[in-house]
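Let's practice the habit of predicting before peeking. Look at the sequence and jot down your guess about where helices and strands might fall. Then scroll down.
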Amino acid sequence: RSNLFWENLSGHLLTACQSPNSLIASAAGESFIELIQQAIEFSHLPPLDEHKELQRTYMQSLLELSLVQNDKHFSLQLSSLNLILQQSISNVNFSWDIILSILTYAASTNWTAIVKLGYRDLQYIIADCLSVIPVEYHTVLILTTAMYGRQEVEINTSFSAVGQLWNLADYFFQNWERINSSDHSSSAENNAFLNSTDTISTPITKFLHNNKLLRIHSRSVLCWGDTLWMTLFQSLGQLCVDNRGTVRRSAAQSLFATLETHGEQLSKPESWSYVFWLLIFPLVDEMKLAIESANTSPEYESSVIIHHHSRDTAHKQWAETLALFGMQLGRLVKTRWGTLVYLTDFARIWTAYLGFVEFCCLKFTPEVAFQTLQSFRDILLNGVNYDEVSHSVQMTSQYLNIRLDETYAEAWKTWIQLAKSIIPSMLKDIEVATDRGMLPEMSHFHAVLINLVKLGPALFIHVKSSLQVSHISEMFQLIKGCVQCPVERDVSPFLVPSPTEDIIAHLHECVLHSIHIILIGKLTTQSILCFEATSLMSRKTDWEESLESLTISNEFKLYIPLILKELFFYCTLIHQPLATRIPTHLKSYFMD
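Done guessing? Here is the structure:
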């Protein structure tokens, strides 16, 4: 019989809650909350957990209190919701969409206390109520948690919300058999939150109506399970472009950790295309736009946190985020290489990634370029047993080899282009700083050049069979440019040659390493890693031993000696310690 009077009674109290008289509004709010609690706790016949319409009527009234936009009413509402969840959760089993709507309203306010209260209720739901929430509301739960991460009122809540998204991923993984076996054939179930006619427009419903993932799922391109995981990935991704640098870094680390840990849950390898085109690369584009518009001047007064001078501007903090994102992206491509290479659009994904590497190396500081090149090189040295990779695309080994050859050829072009841009730019910066009487920080320049030179051997083992004379010449032009780079002032006193051994900088060790690889011509990933693990300083006869077993391919015999001879004389003029490291036997070989 409550249906006969509930609408009039609740409507009257809700109107009184909006009274300009604070005493009347406060008394009406308390009476309204007390009425709803007693209605939910009352022993109905039939029980309220079996009476969907009546249950939702009560909870809908509680949601409507959010429209009043009063902090005291919000506090009463969220405290009442917490009490209902702890004492009468079985009586709201049909109202999870309304409960989550209440929490999204709390997350969208500017009151710190209200955000904390709403997040307290959300924590309780994730900790103790996940097993009773229908699976069709898991997507909305993810988006609600993400809203608490995006709110900018309470930063600790944002950090904690990132952790809660990780907890949701763990729960889905541990209970995936039960979650995925539920019936999701009905579009009404899949979109229960959107299709509920009695739910008022909330911040989360507006987002859901514009969600590209749900539109793709509605066209049956992505299955329900992949849509759930993609929603989780996308929610973490949105936090990667947050205005606060600390939140961005935390979200980026959690995003890629979740992708690496739970990416196997995607139903088919082709779903990884959506990961890159709907998530990764759009985030990269957003970061590029944010960096271009970021302030480059320090804002000490407006910042609560004191930053190091290397991060004291918004532009520097965005650059740091991009460097972290690039490093994590490289690791993801490395770990999923065996799956990605079989995708039909792998060439587009690889080209987009190479464009990202080029952007990071040419537009930002040496620190950003260093981390990007390091992750790029790790991909090239990654060993994958393609026979053990599970894939649905039938691909012959011959076609796979052609695809990999094209992949590494594109990487070689990118590497040469980077070298042609980075090295002259660095040498010019050093020259300008020196002319102005400044002391440039050479360690950063050397770190970038070291990774740039190390990319050569990593690429050479993949493309050596298709290299032309022009390619080898370009590689040695790169090496000549590295030789020109001055040694760090802090290290140079320790690099004076002694009567017993010739000591050179690490950059020049890498130069010798690259020459060594071209001479030997028979390299594997393992041999490169082993070679780098042992310092060249402790291998006095390494070059003599290499010459004794020298095996240069026929097409290299004509021009390799000429290029090496040119490089040797160049080193003699520019960097004497590097030239003295080349043994006498090799010098005589050059002179023949």
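How did you do? Residues 397-435 form the longest helix (39 residues).
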